Amino acid sequence: MGMGMGMGRGPEPPIPPTDLGSPEIVAELALCETSLMFDTVSHSNLGGDGPDGGAEELVFADVAANVNLVVTATSPYTPNMLNPTGGVLRNGAHQGFGIINMASGSSVDLTLSLVDSRDGSPRVLDDFVVTFFDSDHGMGHESRESLTVRGMTSFVVDPDTSLTIDDSGASDVALSNGAGVATFTSSLRGSKEDNPVAPLSLSILQARRSVAVLLQGKSQFEITLSETGYVNPQGRNIFFAGASNLICDGEARCSSYECPLGFELRQDAEFTICDSKPCSVIDHDRCCGASTPPVTTQQVAPAWR
Description:
Layout: H1 23-28, E1 40-44, E2 58-64, E3 67-73, E4 92-94, E5 97-103, E6 107-116, E7 125-133, E8 144-152, E9 154-157, E10 164-169, H2 172-176, E11 180-185, H3 204-208, E12 211-218, E13 220-228, E14 235-241, E15 263-265, H4 284-287, E16 288-290
Antiparallel strand pairs: 1-2, 2-3, 3-6, 4-5, 5-14, 6-13, 7-12, 7-14, 8-11, 8-13, 9-12, 10-11, 15-16
């Protein structure tokens, strides 16, 4: 018997998920050129904890053209209450990062929604990346920081990542359907001294503590943040942004340049981008200034003279 139309053919092979680790895919989707930008907060009242009144949400304005990103808590949210200049006052945008403050010993479920900045309606973006940074924890051996992302298509970590990853909910089928779920948990201690200074200028250590996730055809996704096992109460700041040098070409900053003898890095070195990559002698004047000689007792005339 001859083969009829469709007879004898198996099911179509599943479409593999988009690979965020492929530079060709990153370039094709222009993920670096169209990165979300976290520069401005127009409203800050996450979980109803202020400092603004009104809607209980944190709004990052103009993350894309005519698009805001709105963060809402779907479970109780606890910021750090110990520092009068911290806590919810840390929630916002700083140096290209979005920041959410949490109290140690707490967790929160958050929904991140893209909305039209003109009328508040949902805005679906075809392809966008969100990077989460600085996943480390306190001095207590049992302390841990964890992030769970729901609704992603792909994720990328550094080849030498320090994160413990549970990707049991991120099968190829789940990822292909934009329903991937994965949890990323810290394994190393950290401090504010090793916090990132720019999404495209991650150090080796900072890259190892970061994860970038790809979301496709979505107007919103969900995350869970958790801080557990801390001996002493404290605040923790969660850093996130759009694309980062986990997938994009990084920036070289003056803080990575070694000034020659007699010179020292300028005060704004960590924020100054070099013309070359890595920074080189052509960036000397941009990055370095003459060292100020230390004042000694021999150089200072006695007061009675």
